[in-house]
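User: hey, got a sec? need Alpha-ketoglutarate-dependent dioxygenase AlkB folded
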Amino acid sequence: MRTASVSRDDLFAPAMLQLVDDAQGGARYWPGFVDADTARRWFEVLSAQADWRHLRRPMYDRVVDVPRLLANYPVDALPADLPLADMLARVRERVPAPFSSIGMNFYRDGQDSVAMHGDKLHTLRDGHPIALVSLGAPRRMLIRAVADHADRVAIDLMPGSLLVMSHAMQSTHEHGIPKARHAAPRISVVFRARPPVASLL
Ligand SMILES: O=C(O)CCC(=O)C(=O)O
Ligand SMILES: [Fe+2]
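Assistant: Yep! Here you go:
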């Protein structure tokens, strides 16, 4: 396994790390996408004021808690008291894609997690990437090839960082945030380009 860990304060850190390669840009990571003060401000407002929901989901013959809080906003109805329009504008400067939905995850502590998965392709516009801004405490993400689980990379997602994953990668690779022994609260803000509603039916 490769481990990629870069801190914003590391003078020798590259501006961008290529974590996975493919014809659509693969997975690219910018550790210092926004400055520390901006990341702190965004975390404070979102943690306090977003519409966080605790979901339960059927799994086999049981109903289980989703082990993190979720909040979702379509980009054409962003609440004015949240910094999401500003975040979207900055993400679009770096990644010019037709993002239409913002999904957020709140990992309250090390027990919160997301299992290894590829994002659902039928809910994403073909060819457009997913962009993910991290806020709050660092958390480790694992990315692995579906065809060879030994082909994997661990990246410590720092507050103020941006991770961009290609559409193609959602079928060739899985990503997840494993549980951690100790972790302070973290938020990820995920920008996706959704297909028009009609094509979902
Ligand atoms: O929180 C993260 O960094 C990953 C979230 C994720 O994979 C998702 O929302 O699909
Ligand atoms: Fe995901």
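Quick note: The domain at 2-7+15-200 is CATH 2.60.120.590 (Jelly Rolls). Let me know if you need anything else on Alpha-ketoglutarate-dependent dioxygenase AlkB.
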